[in-house]
Amino acid sequence: MTLATALFLLVLFVVTLTVAAYSTYAERKVAAFLQDRIGPDRAGPFGILQPLADGTKMFMKEDFIPAAANRRLFTLGPAIAMITALMTGVVIPWGGELTLFGETFRLQGTDPEIGILFVFAIVSIGVYGIMLGGWASNNKYALLGSVRAASQMVSYELGMGLSIVALVMLNGTLSLGGIVEHQAAHGWNIIYQPLGFIIFLVCAFAETNRSPFDMPECETELVGGYHTEFSSMKLGFFLFAEYTNMFISSAVISTLYFGGYHVPGLDRLGLDPNLTTLIGTAAMFAKTFFFIFFFMWVRWSTPRFRFDQLMNLGWKGLIPLGIANVLITGTVYHLAELWKG
Amino acid sequence: MAALFYILAAISVISALTVVGARNPVNSVIALVVCFLSIAGHYVLLNAQFLAMVHVIVYTGAIMVLFLFVIMLLNLNKPGGPRKSLAMRLAAAVAGGLLFLTLAAAVRQGVAITPAAGFDPGVGLVRHVGQVLFTEFLLPFEVSSVLFLSAIVGVVMLAKKDKDEAPDPHITGPERARRTA
Amino acid sequence: MEPISTPHDYLPVLVQAAIAVGFVGFALSAAAFLGPRLHGRKKEESFECGIEQQGDARRPFSVKYLLIAILFVLFDVEVIFLYPWAVNFKALGAVGFVEMVVFVGFVLAGLYYVLRKGVMRIE
User: Fold this and answer.
1) What tens digit of pLDDT does each residue of A197-217 get?
2) Residue (of A137, A126, A163) closest to A242 by Cα position
3) Mutate to test the interface with C, among A139, A167, A310 (most CBs of C within 10 A)
4) Partners for A (CB, 8 Å, 3+ pairs)?
5) Domain annotation covers residue C78
6) d(Cα C92, Cα C96) in Å, to the nearest integer?
7) Residue C1 domain-assigned (yes or no)
8) From A210's CA, which of A65, A131, A339, B108 has a CA 20 to 30 Å away?
9) Is C85 in Cβ contact with B146 (below 8 Å)?
10) End-to-end distance of chain A based on CA atoms, in angstroms?
11) CATH code at C105?
12) From the list B33, B60, B125, which residue is nearest A113 (CB)?
């Protein structure tokens, strides 16, 4: 832990907020494009100041708490949602090694040996934000929304956990930095784990409560779901946490299955190591942005699941598929070993 | 490191006391979550990183969510709750006192609490845990899978009625009338 | 031998937590300070689509959600057991794989039972 790491974390924090803020703008622009509209265009040229205007509005609105609510938990819910959303970025490798002023450091907050489990641990704490928020509101829609959200998130946590197992078998490590290095040496995981990737992707949609899995805030049935009673910055945190989670999950997907900051053939060009690292970081962000766009694309193209369909998909579809993926991967690996002799 | 340990220990103790002392069960649950997180911190200090994450994922992420569900389901939101009878309190005091006695005796009788000589920082890392678990402790591991199966069957047996039974007793009032109509 | 991971790897996590908590605390108190505040009995009622509030929201709900939570705990522990095995997958060889197939067999049996009993059937 050096000063450089602390500085890096601050930069990462600002970048995360900026990306999340501009994801809200991008979402509206993408939606507008898909629906043949213009989208936000009033605040600044092409409306690019829209996130600033939205943020200011969140600050200036009345911080309303219903009389029947539990005041402390009502504040704690959105706070947990936002804090857990901001925490995960610390273990993601955003780039390789950078040498500045004679010092070498990695573009990664930290690389503990159980990196991906750290992500899961934080995600599993994130459930509390929604549960407490919905329960504290003392509103029937909010309570139903939060119970749905919790059931959905825990169910898909299982599928997500299982989809990673086969990947870990082949990579032999849980560290995210290690997984990227393994992919740089042996090829991207998407080649070996297409089924695992699909399971993980679907679970990522469910974990972030994004459409078509946005049951917890399904406005046609539940008004606004767990955030029905929230306003001002508290509502802002719930919405903002969703976009931050989307950014982080996109980054995790890129890291696990698409080589993270690795660009095939780049190290053979003999470029300056710093330049290579920066290109790698740019590649990482490009992959991440693609998946953010993918999240939005799906949202504006597909109708929402029904709650029973969602549960069936999770328990009857993804969990058995995840186990099958583990067994298939193991069998194929050992058959290949036998073949090689 | 020592300072971190004392801070974490203080958090563990205070939050554990809050679990017992809080009037509102939801506050108890939150205090227990904090307690579990601080214990995970202790695991990290011992470099048992895998265990720390398992602790967070299983205890805070799964078991405490279940607790919250139970509190919501049983509608235990009224602070205070029912007063326990005298016999109940007496039984609790006796049981707690016995546990304390046992622990005190065990500590006095020579569970030597001394730093393990030659602590290997690699012992709690996931690779080592796996190697030991799947060679030395293979049998307990496989037996645990039977245990899980029996737990799953037990849960389903207790909670699930057969399909052709009467309407869900948890649905009451107008909703029930509507469904049976 | 690569350098092993130590507790020092978690200091950045603490720093990150401090940044996150600081930001959240700042934004929440700033919003509470900046926004207007008007009280009113009608206004502070829970929102139920404009219809008058009917009783308390905290009433018992279907036991099925509880069942999902219990089953999640059980399956979650089983999934956790797979990680130390997966990390050592190549080192443990074919014998290790067969060991895990036995374990996964029991998991699948449990899952099959759960699905067969229609636990996940939510009307």
Assistant:
1) 999 999 998 888 777 777 666
2) A126
3) A139
4) B, C
5) yes
6) 5
7) no
8) A65
9) no
10) 46
11) 1.20.58.1610
12) B125
Question: Which residue has tokens 């919003």?
Answer: C31
Report in angstroms the alpha-carbon separations of B42 from A87, B6, B38, B51: 19, 10, 6, 10
Cα–Cα dist B132/C84, whole Å: 10
Q: Name the pLDDT band for B12 (thresholds 50, 70, 90).
A: very high
B126 and C110 in contact by Cβ < 8 A?
A: no
Place of tokens 């099959």: C112
Q: Does B58 touch chain C (CB under 8 A)?
A: yes
Mutate to test the interface with A, among C46, C59, C95, C106 (most CBs of A within 10 A): C46
Are the C-beta atoms of residues A319 and C75 closer than 8 Å to each other?
A: yes
B/C interface, count of CB pairs below 8 Å: 134
Look at chain C and report how many structural domains it folds into.
Answer: 1
The reply to whether C94 falls in a domain is yes
Separation in Å, CA A1 to CA A8, A191, B142, C11, C14: 11, 35, 41, 7, 11
C33-36's contacts with Cβ under 8 Å and 24+ in sequence apart are: C34/A59, C34/A60, C35/A59, C35/A60, C35/A61, C35/A62, C35/A63, C35/A232, C36/A62
Q: Do B75 and C59 touch (CB under 8 A)?
A: yes
Tokens representing residue B72 in the block: 């919501």
Residue of B26, B50, B60 with shortest CB distance to A114: B50
So what's the pLDDT on residue B97? 94
What pLDDT is recorded for position A224? Answer: 66
Let me know how long chain A is.
341
Does residue C93 sit within a domain? yes
Q: Evaluate if residue B173 carries a pLDDT over 70.
A: no
Rg (CA), chain C: 25
Cα-based distances in Å from B69 to A220, A254, B88, C71: 25, 34, 26, 13
State the CB neighbour count (10 A cutoff) for residue A298. 15
Token pair 């504290």 is found at A136
Which residue of C lies nearest to A79 if distances are taken between CA atoms? C24
What contacts C55, CB < 8 A, 6 or more positions away? none
- B178: phi then psi, degrees, rounded to nearest 5: -65, -40
Contact at CB, A67 and C87, closer than 8 angstroms = no
What's the pTM?
0.87
Tokens 């067999």 label which residue?
C105
CB-based burial label for C33 (10 Å; 0-12, 13-18, 19+)? exposed
Separation in Å, CA of C11 to nearest CA in chain B: 11
Contact B133, C87 (CB under 8 A): no
Distance CA C13, CA B56 (A): 15
Of C56, C87, C108, the CB nearest to A172: C87
Nearest CB to C99; choose among B44, B46, B134: B134
Distance from CA of B96 to the nearest CA of C (A): 28
Expressed as residue numbers, the domain containing C86 is: 7-116
